[in-house]
């Protein structure tokens, strides 16, 4: 019987929205900040279990507002429009290289995204598409979408599934959708009603993500990637 241990997953969270202007009818400049804060706090506080092992997360956030902003990691090679992917460069600027290393060194990915015109938002497609499949392959991803209205961004989730398949970070089957996010979360990401049934989605998705992340990490270490 194997002894128990604590396994730490390097978990990169991609934010899918680059909005920073409140709509004229009022509301948040970026509704997703509530969801992102909730997801980050959940991951950092979470103590998962997998057999006899304890699972924790070492969380890093990749946010297009900062990555493409002034002095951001990709600001020297792109303003967000994907002029050239990182793998076109023989030598990347230091900040871009550090971001590539962060993504390539991850054990799993969590994507937090709205939907724009029912598909993957351009900021998310750009920030993930700047890096080749070799960074993502043989690792799992989990998809979380949100909306101001009743559908929770789930139409975009289907296009994100296709994108993650192509990149090689296969999504787990459980997807999370938060409709009317401003009614679910305070501005700091804390739930307005901790017993709300919609909040049960994230722990279920993370159970799947951790199972896949540990299995794929062990296999990468044993035989490498394909």
Give an account of the 3D structure.
The chain is an alpha/beta fold and about 230 residues long. Helix content is about 35%, strand content about 20%. The chain contains eight helices and seven strands; from the N terminus they run βαββααβααβαββαα. Strand 5, helix 6 and strand 6 form a beta-alpha-beta unit. The longest helix is centred in the C-terminal third of the chain and has 23 residues. The protein is globular, with a radius of gyration of 17 Å.
Features:
226 residues, alpha/beta, 7-stranded mixed sheet, 7 strands, 19% strand, globular
List the helices and strands and how they pair.
Blueprint: E1 6-15, H1 32-45, E2 48-50, E3 53-62, H2 64-67, H3 94-104, E4 108-113, H4 122-129, H5 133-136, E5 139-146, H6 154-167, E6 169-171, E7 176-178, H7 181-184, H8 201-223
Parallel strand pairs: 1-3, 1-4, 4-5, 5-6, 5-7
Antiparallel strand pairs: 2-3
